[in-house]
Sequence to fold (475 residues):
Amino acid sequence: MDRPKDASDRIVILGGGLTGLTAGLVLSRAGRSVQVLERGPEVGGLARTIVRGGFRFDLGGHRFFTKDEKVAAFLGGLMGAELVTVPRTSKILLNNRYFDYPLRPLNALFGLGVPTTIRSLLDYAGRRIARGFKETPIVSLEDWVVDRFGRTLFNIYFKEYSEKVWGIDCERICMEWIDQRIQGLSLRRAIKEALFPSANGGMATLADRFLYPARGIGRIAENLREGIERTGRVLTDARVCELRHDGLRLERAAVDGPGSTGDFAGGEFVSTLPLTSLVDMLRPRPPEEVARAAARLRYRDLVIVAVMIGRPRVTDQTWIYIPERSVPFGRIHEPTNWSGKMAPEGKTLLVTEHFCFQGDDAWRTTDERLVGNTVSHLARLGFVKPDEVEDAAVVRVPHAYPVFEVGYENSYRTILDYLSRFENLHVAGRTGAFRYQNMDHVIAAGIDTAQRIIARTPADFEMDGEDTDLAELNA
Ligand SMILES: Cc1cc2nc3c(=O)[nH]c(=O)nc-3n(C[C@H](O)[C@H](O)[C@H](O)COP(=O)(O)OP(=O)(O)OC[C@H]3O[C@@H](n4cnc5c(N)ncnc54)[C@H](O)[C@@H]3O)c2cc1C
Fold:
């Protein structure tokens, strides 16, 4: 294997999450020189698996589901026999009762008691009739859900949970999030899907089986890293702090540790860093209006509190959603329901997701208080007895969700217009491109970005028996 002739042949990938690593693997298999720079001590970003003793957990359970054949083939080739198929059964816990998630019409309506059911149906029917006379513009998440489910069901099932996740009123959550997340979902369609299930499993949100690596979602990133390192380099504990450019091209990324310091020059740069951080790191600095636009975009952060328990199983669910405001976490999952390899024999764990912004109490408070509070709520909800808890772990996850606040598009457009002047900068992924993307989307984005770069750069070396063809990549 040859090394690149000079730094201009190197492709520098900023961030070692699934987008960056997928791009890195496709590029390195096509004979390009790849350098991944990842701030954390491990690769995987949001899709990594934490290991504590014999326990393993994701940062919020990550199921893999795709309708994209290219992505399915890529993942299958990468993971082989590591993938298991898991049935999905999720519930919403509301007023001490369990409701199916995704909402199933009969259960959602009739579990509420007769008066509320009648009110919900009348409200929904009224909405449909009113819509026939006058189209009202759909701007926010609230407009969208009320339009498709009626206000009664919106208040019961959507409002509290959405506001917990996003930290802002549903009126201020842009409906674009819905578009990217649950296209086509409505009470009418959900009823149809319940009565006449479609052959292809219907909408993505209603899929009832998914793929999962038996030792946690982080195995995908680990395998990608291993593949890249056959020819390229992946540096962890390498925080990118500055990006030097000449106005048209990025020239080098400066890294300030903790594991490594120095400059990394390159010919092409793939950024999967938070879009707002990317703008902040450019030197010379971008015009004031671009910096202001970046300051207006926000990400929602997440604190994970995992509680290790000395009995084999607590629930039989994939996820349990908890809209109630008084409970500090919004969702629970039990990794042993996803794969038996996620805990030592005879033990299990519950993983709770606390959505917050970095300045909030949930982010700043001590681990001890977070664990104490989490255990007492889990006990109150009937999941555990405090004396069954053997251990706990807290992980703070920055930039978990791009926040689509009504009106965010102008700021977003200003930033993208400015960045488009850099001929060798490729912005990609969920965090990097500020899109609500799942793993299958970001893997596709990584492949597409790599293929665009391959089309414009000559190979530095040839891999024996491998080329840029995806079929080969999957071999
Ligand atoms: C709670 C939760 C649950 C989810 N569940 C699912 C699910 O069930 N199914 C599904 O398909 N998807 C799920 N997702 C989405 C999935 O996690 C993402 O689509 C995917 O992991 C995004 O990958 P990425 O590489 O685009 O971004 P990231 O994973 O954010 O990668 C960006 C990387 O850049 C690094 N970085 C940041 N700043 C710097 C810096 N200054 N220098 C160097 N590196 C830096 C970060 O450490 C990170 O590793 C979930 C996400 C969350 C938050």
Remarks:
- Residues 464-475 have pLDDT under 50 and may be disordered.
- Residues 260 and 396 are 22 Å apart (CA to CA).
